[in-house]
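Q: what does this look like with S-adenosylmethionine bound?
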Amino acid sequence: MADKEHKKNLHPRNFHNKRYDFPQLIQSLPKLADYVFKNKYDDLSIDFADSKAVLTLNKAILSHFYNIKEWSIPNGYLCPPIPGRADYIHYIADILAKSNNNKIPNGSKIKGLDIGIGANCIYPIVGNSVYGWSFVGSDIEKKSIESSKKIIESNDSLNGNIECRLQTNSDNIFTGIIKKDDKFDFTLCNPPFHKSQEEAQAGSKRKVQNLTKQVVKKASLNFGGKSNELWCKGGEVAFIKTMIKQSKKYAKNCFWFSTIVSKKDNLRFIYDTLDYVKPMEYKTIQMKQGQKISRIVIWTFLSKEEQRQWVKNW
Ligand SMILES: C[S@@+](CC[C@H](N)C(=O)[O-])C[C@H]1O[C@@H](n2cnc3c(N)ncnc32)[C@H](O)[C@@H]1O
């Protein structure tokens, strides 16, 4: 099978713009060798439809590029494609740089809030490792919070830089998570995407079929994903609309709010909601990964003057 993860057009600072260097990754994690083979193009690759192979590749990437030596997720939980996740972090860095004389602000004084940190803790890992930022990560699932906590505690570089907070009401996004005196330079989110469990299952099945080019009866998930991770009532539109509405209440706690929007057709509903809550600015940034295009929508309630004041603390 061709190296499906070899993607063009990732952010220029993304470490994963080139083909995976398997010999180098194997040096970081010898176990990866068990899954690497020469494909029909004579290139080294792994079977991207094999969940164990994908998990092991992720461990090797995290060890090699992000200095994460201990990383695991509970069985069946979302195993993130790291190149795409890293892109979001690099675009956030560009957004912050724009308000900072085009210099990316580094270090733990820059604080992000990851809505739906998941069991894999991926965004805080990349943001902390590449830019030294600190994070709070929220989730409605206890098991995900426990898993992310375990990852943080097992890696010295993350310890003390990432805090997990359990969201006890799944109807809430920021309420119950942002404390009165919290200040976040950005919030980010990879929202649950599908409207129902059936839709999520069908989506996973399609993904595996595309990877294997074989008819699949039941999706044995390579990138995994438990129910809460992949779907919520109303899908990504409903989730993001709630997020936008609640963000207004925390207008002065956060500089930039942001979220991924997977479906282009959903943008109009999101813009309608933004027009309703009237932030000071909003914009959409396109992310390209091979054929796949997704987007980040960002918004802020801070005036230009408030923005200037805000960055004085960076
Ligand atoms: C698509 S997964 C993203 C996980 C991880 N950030 C990643 O990118 O791989 C969405 C996550 O949002 C969580 N979630 C769902 N509703 C939530 C809410 N109201 N507040 C916080 N997290 C929520 C899910 O439990 C899940 O972990």
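The first strand starts at residue 37 and ends at 38. The chain has one domain: 78-311.
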